[in-house]
Amino acid sequence: MSTNENELMLRILVDIQTKLAEHSKRFDTVDGRLAKIERRLDEVHETLYTSFGIAGHANVKTDMLQRELEELRDRVTRLEEKA
Q: Which segments of the protein form a coiled coil according to its record (predicted)?
């Protein structure tokens, strides 16, 4: 190979290395941003599951109180009928 060809090849390889270094920096940035997004999504999921758990518990509590109220109404009605 001639000197010009070697210099051209070397310049191309340097350009490739430079571009790869730029890509590596960008990937590091993107990886960091994705990690933050994943953490935020995990927090949102945890909050949603907690919220649904609380809401579910409240529904169970409300149903239980509703049944107790119905039972008390029935008892009052029976007592009033006896009186």
A: 55-82
Indicate yes or no: pTM above 0.70: no
Q: Among all chains, which residue has been given the structure tokens 């999921």?
A: 45
Quote the Cα angle for 12-18-22, to 5°. Answer: 145
For residues 50 and 67, give the distance between their C-alpha atoms in angstroms, rounded to a whole number: 26
What is the residue whose two structure tokens read 């509703």? 66
Residue-by-residue pLDDT tens, the chain, 83 positions: 678 899 999 999 999 999 999 999 999 999 999 999 999 999 999 998 888 888 888 888 888 999 999 999 999 999 888 87
Q: For the chain, how many residues are written?
A: 83
